[in-house]
Amino acid sequence: MKVVVLAGGISTERDVSLSSGSMIYKAMKARGHQAILLDVYLGYEGDCLSIFEKDVDWAEKIGDISEKNPDLEEIKALRSDGGKSFFGPNVLEICGRADCVFLALHGANGEDGKVQACLELLGIPYTGTDFVSSAMAMDKGITKDMFKAYGIPTPAGIRLKKGEKEEKRVPFPCIVKACCGGSSVGVCIARNEEEYEAAKKEGFYYDDEVIIEQYIEGREFSVGVMNGKAFPVIEIAPKEGFYDYRNKYQAGSTVETCPAMLPKEKTKELQRMAELVFAALRLKNYARMDFRMNHEGEIFCLEANTLPGMTPVSLLPQEAAVLGIDFPTLCEMILNNSLKG
């Protein structure tokens, strides 16, 4: 099968996306597919006619994820056409030649439904959920509204636009996060007024709207769902601080336990809630839900990730491994499920 693994882009999660894309590309090759790894923003300026037959290691230039966010202005300067379109040279043409596009994009313009809508209009099959559910899950404010409508417990909170007067305050400690961010970029814990002002400044750097919500003291979990069925629960315990960008993607910075050490009834409760979130947001194919559990054992859903990370330290592949599903097989399942519609 001809597969384009689409990664990169110009979101703050660019490096994570490239790492996910590299892993998926290698998995597709291992499964015998004619796969290429393509940066959605930089594209490909060579001859596209026989691109799937070219003897090229498309992942050879993908390096490790840095601890700092990528310099997006430096990336944009690499486009000879000035970057007027989000899609780089020949990207849509190459995708049109594929049997399926495996989306390894994360963050804005990749996980928010825009790319999905474009591919759908062009009749190009792609992995993951559709453009509507992608958009709902990307906007944390809409996600929280849907949680409330379906009776899914979520931390109490408010939305705040840049320059808007605060009519309500969330008691400390609270979490401030960009409304449409991901990978914990633009996410801060505030325990006092000084930290709160700094957290808002950080959140507004990445988005014109932030979510301010109650911080749930306790344990953190994640649950993958594929075709409506929950995977094993994984617990995330950072060695320092909270589960931020660095702790998510730097090996050895977080202790991840799968299956999580929980009573059987709590495991089932988390899995049921993950499946309910999947249904409430109209998700398709696969996704990953994040949770906090307080010291009293109450569970709160934080968000849904419609294109969860597929890096060497990502959570979904760890959950799949507990079920005996190795990484290439997991990617093949995602691919096949997508083609089934």
Q: What is the topological layout?
A:
Layout: E1 2-7, H1 14-30, E2 34-39, H2 72-76, H3 91-96, E3 100-103, H4 114-121, H5 131-138, H6 140-149, E4 157-161, E5 174-178, E6 187-190, H7 193-206, E7 209-214, E8 218-226, E9 229-238, H8 245-249, E10 254-257, H9 264-280, E11 286-294, E12 299-305, H10 315-322, H11 327-339
Parallel strand pairs: 1-2, 1-3
Antiparallel strand pairs: 4-7, 5-6, 5-7, 8-9, 8-11, 9-10, 11-12
Helix pairs in contact: 1-11, 4-5
**What structural category do the secondary elements indicate?**
alpha+beta
- Approximate strand percentage: 15-25%
Order of strands, main sheet, comes to 10-9-8-11-12
Mean pLDDT across the residues is 90
Largest beta-sheet details: 5 strands, antiparallel
- By DSSP (H or I, 4+ residues per run), the number of helices equals 11
Order of helices and strands: EHEHHEHHHEEEHEEEHEHEEHH
**What is the number of strand segments?**
12
Oligomer: single chain
Question: Helix content range of the residues, please?
Answer: 25-40%
Span of the ends, CA to CA: 17 Å
- Alpha carbon gyration radius: 20 Å
